[in-house]
Specification:
Low-confidence stretches: none
Order of helices and strands: HHHHHHHHHHHHH
Shape: globular
Radius of gyration: 18 Å
Helix content: over 70%
Mean pLDDT: 90
Largest sheet: none
Amino acid sequence: MTSREDDALAQAAVAALTGQLALTPKPGLPDPRDLDARSTRQEHDSLRWSARALAPGLAAMAASARRTGTPTPVLRAELGAIGRCTEHSVGLAGGGHKGALWALGLLVAATALDPRAKAREIASTARKIAAFNDKGAPRRPSRGSTISAKYGAAGARGEARAGFPHVRRALEALTAARKAGATENQARLDALLTVMSTLQDTELLYEVGPMGLRHVQAGARGVLEAGGSATEAGAEALTALDADLHERGWSPRGSAGLLAGALFLDALPAM
């Protein structure tokens, strides 16, 4: 059984995920500007519905953590089993958000273990959970793990086992942009670009290889070095990067999932 607190954590995670979906202009990623196109509107609707479909699984992860009480191999195995069931449910709802489910699931579970913990402490607890092997995981390597091994990229598992450094960087970028007077949309875009500028996104590596990944990273750095999305030069660079990635069909989905993790942690004090 899940508690009211478990459900609240799950809803906060879903709100973070749908919040990043609403950002615009989001380089290479679906955003509300494209809803006039029928195919893009269907994709966006599918992503929003599948985000909501994560809620029961995320609540179950929170309940599992609350019941276990500490990071253990048993908790890691339970989270893995819940995650695989949730992936199946999300697939029925239209698919998507697999990477975000991994990050949000660990962060939700870590938060449930200590609801009073700060963001850095939650990330550290998530690292402890992720350090255990999931004995129930399929033996066949995933696409992400195969790409990680091929290119030496950290991948989703490495990101978690390092304590979600890109989630923490995104939080720092959010704080800095807000203090500088950026709007909330601009602050969140700068946080996304911060992740994109250094993340070894295994989805991008799979689709476009190392040269393509470096192209995306350089484009994101260019926007930030121009002053970020709140400045005229930064906004122009962002518009150019957005057009370039959409034209190429390159989508930094890994960065979007980690931004959702940052938005979840950022919302916790307000819960």
